[in-house]
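Students often ask why we bother predicting the structure of a whole assembly rather than each chain alone. The short answer is interfaces. A chain on its own may look different once its partners are present, and contacts between molecules only exist in the joint model. In this exercise we take two input lines together and write out one structure for the complete complex. Read the inputs first and try to guess which parts will touch.
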Amino acid sequence: MEDTPTAGAPPRNGTWKKHLIHLFPVPAILFYTLFIVYPILAAFTYSLFEWKGLVMGRFNNFDNFIRLFTQEPYHTMFWRALRHNLYYFVVEMVVQNGIAFGLAYLIFRKIKGASFFKVAYFLPRLLSVIIVGFLWKLILNPNMGILNAVLRKVGLESLTTAWLGDPDTALTAVVLINSWFAIGFYMLILLAGLQSIPEEVMEAARLDGTTGFRLIRSVVLPMMFQPMVIVIVMTFIQSFEAFELVFAMQGSTGEPFYSTDLLAVFFYRTAFGGNSGDTGSLGIGSALAVVLFAIIAIISAVFMKYVNHKETA
Amino acid sequence: MRLRVMKRSVLYVLAVGYAIVSLFPLLLMLISSFKPNVEIFTKPLAWPSKFSVVSYDKLFVELNYSKYIFNSAFVSVATLVILVVCSVMVSFYIARFRFKWNGLLFFYFLLGMMLPIKLGLVPLFLLVRDLGLINSYWSIILIQVGAGLPMAVLILSGFFRTLPSELEEAGRMDGCSSGGLLVRILVPLMKPAIGTVVIINFIGVWNDFFFPMIFIQDEAKKTIPLGMLQLFGEFTTDWSVLFAGLTLSSLPMIIIFALASRQFMDGLTAGAVK
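Now the answer. The structure tokens for the assembled complex follow.
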């Protein structure tokens, strides 16, 4: 195999030392292949086998997938969790990213104290999701939590409820808490996008008398196509692999009554416990992982393709 | 003119309004940790009548909290050191040498950005078990190194390409080997990019509870987020201790952020936007 020397290539009058360079990527390839690539590929294989506890049984074709989609309780749990994931994604897109854009735009318009606001909005993102979950669990506690205490104080007693214990409000509460956690991060990405708009473009628009919402709609948003797609893709991936917050706050069955159950929570429960007593659960868990992975990969690829198409068009 | 002032003040009201939404829960957590339980319930919004550190005392004495901090610190530092060394080496190779396979190698690492490793949990669990790493720090460290590599390779190889190659030629004239060149000339120039990699992964590793929860059952090896999980099981009625635990767990990250908030925020967006 002939190496093509470039500006920085090792000298060819080499000793054995020049071949040492080929060892440079080895540790990284090793760790990455063993702990990331292999487990994901293996999940595909695992999904096609029967499992007895942690022991692989015989090959059983697509039986795990068929059971996932036809057998109870998997069938009900899957579609319910998928609906919850979609809801999670939509609320994040509208509330979380809407507020994130608004805040980024405020800072972009050069309000005083911008650096303070940036820090203040970003701060929650530094907490562990488990701490976020527990903190809000205390705040939303129906009897002793501060939110209901405040509502009582200002005479809105009728609004007080067990936010996390009521199936009607629990999922929304969890998504909003996640938004509280993540807004600062999305704000930073959108702000970076805003700041990459050439100053002349903004100037020209202002000279034309374009201001307010029209400025945002017809000048700012079209110039921010790429960062916005990044935000959408990241929000999508994160909402479809969301697990920690629900697990910390509502347990592995997505209480109350599975109202906060998400696909990744369902996956964890199926593979590692919860739906116990079922011999096939590891296989069905793997089948679910494959389905979830396919959803994430396909949708992200479509989004990305759309970006490239727009860019070259 | 008056309209302009009014518009301007609306902007400030919104900015301050969301700052309160963002910071208030954190402030509440901090203040409540200094209150006795009774006060948390009777006067939830009030300043503590007297600052009491009883809860913090309890954390360190009864719960051996310093052990969790040590474990988290060890796991984070080990992960970051291994990750930086590995990713600098592979990125140097990808960006600076043109062999047949290094485009493919770059693509191989990029793919990892789209792979949610959580979905490989079942095989990962069996792998870690077969390697005899259950209950070992190394289970978490090695997984986090693997998970951090795609982003690290993307950032570092991009940065390597921006460094002028004349530097290296000069180094080679002086008889530097590739390794010497990398360590003595290039790495010092790469501090900003390495800083970004360190920051992104530090937040992730320090705060993660998913992998420790799966792989660490041994009480003596639990990290801070796992400690929190346990705290909530045991102290469900002692809110002051719970708030103290939450505060203490978030504090290290917030202190580091206070010292380097600019690098934190710039680094994070550099990783996300590029």
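Check your guess against this: Confidence is low (pLDDT under 50) at residues 1-11 of chain A.
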